[in-house]
Amino acid sequence: MTMDQSRRAFLKRASMLSMAGGAAPFVMNLAAMGEAAAATASDYKALVCVFLFGGNDYANTLVPYDSTQYGVYRTQRAGLALAQSVLDPTVLRPSIPLASGAQYALTPGLAKLLPIFDAGKMAVMLNVGTLVQPTTKAQYNARSVPLPPKLLSHNDQQNYWQASGPEGATSGWGGRIGDLLQSGNGTSTLTCINVSGNAVFLTGKAAVQYSITNSGPIGLTARTSLNGSAAASTLLQSLIGGSVAGNHQFGTALGTIGSRALGLYTQVTGALAQAPTIATPFPAAADPSSSLGAQLQTVARLIAVSQQLGAKRQVFFVSTGRYDTHDGLGTLHPTLMTNLGDALRAFYDTTVELGVANQVTTFTASDFGRALTANNDGSDHGWGSMHFVLGGAVKGGRYYGINPTLANGGPDDIGQGRLIPTMSVDQYAATLASWFGVAASDLATVVPNIGNFAGSALGTNVGFV
Hints:
Elements: H1 3-21, H2 25-31, H3 37-40, E1 45-52, E2 62-64, H4 67-76, H5 84-87, E3 104-106, H6 114-118, E4 122-129, H7 137-142, H8 154-163, H9 173-181, E5 192-194, E6 209-213, E7 216-217, H10 230-241, H11 249-272, H12 292-304, E8 313-320, H13 329-354, E9 360-366, E10 385-390, E11 399-401, E12 423-424, H14 425-436, H15 443-446
Parallel strand pairs: 1-8, 1-9, 4-11, 4-12, 5-6, 5-8
Antiparallel strand pairs: 2-3, 4-10, 6-7, 9-10
Keywords: Signal
Pfam families: DUF1501
Protein name: DUF1501 domain-containing protein
């Protein structure tokens, strides 16, 4: 992209942010495209994306347990395969067994999620990944269908997962859901909230991604402190929104964004000060470098004050890393899984405590899965993977999707046990978006390739929520 193109793109985004920041009629009109119900809805719903950066190893997360699959699993990853006896306590017993007879167990680190699955509030997604359209192995080998760009590349596949587009995409499907539904919120900027920095997933065409830390809203950083002075704060807001802005596009965008940030800081800080005390403990992270539990606890606190914030629909993004397990999979991955299981269980229990379990749906995502075959003490980049969806509205206690045939060079494999996805991210996203309130006619706005899956085995709504 040239410098001129970059500048034009920035100006376009800045003007969008300017309009969105003031909840201008432009935003109201955009949101009205396919959503009349959310604007007058009396209920509350939240989607929470838990992104595992690096590419989670599918085979040591949802572990093959039946004798046929387990034999292949053990052979393909000598030294990394979990002992079948270790898996006995976490075997999944779904309400609808797989027709193939395949069985799976949760890795021991996810044991705390087993009661949620057994209670029918957690569903397992089989072989999810980035696709442009349904793809067979023959089509992949012949390159006779369009494929996601730069398969096995971290940056590109993270972006395709989050945005249905390559690296450089300017909006993600979480943000595009926000575009359609933010008019139902009292403060449109609190529709898409990131607790882990910044991600294209939450960037909309008009919806603004609001970042918050585990310590609360991000305050103004300056060389001098306002020392709690209301007069100084008012003067600063006047300067940011007035004389600094001027008539220049950059100045206008800076003034609008700065003024909005100051206002939101006060609004969110005030609401969180009234948040109820959460009794559910969030355990210390098994992986000390991860703040996933703390991020989810922050999300829970924001959900608890959603009424004070005037929110009816919110999309959250939390994340954790170190999932690029080329080395040390046998020692690192169990720690990552324990941390994930503990954090998800504490968050789900908190939604029950707050009385909003039926209104909050949490789902996992990652760059890609990994290869089945071991590479010394790790596994290499893959494609399809296994994921989890939790919440009171989830039709859980069962599998969704098509279980893959495990084999190096098998019918679902592009090499070394890298799975060709049989459930697309578009189908995964469309199902979540439909529950959230996006009309069927607007799904292509959220995930542009969804029409390619209308005639597939799973259709455009997988039905897990």
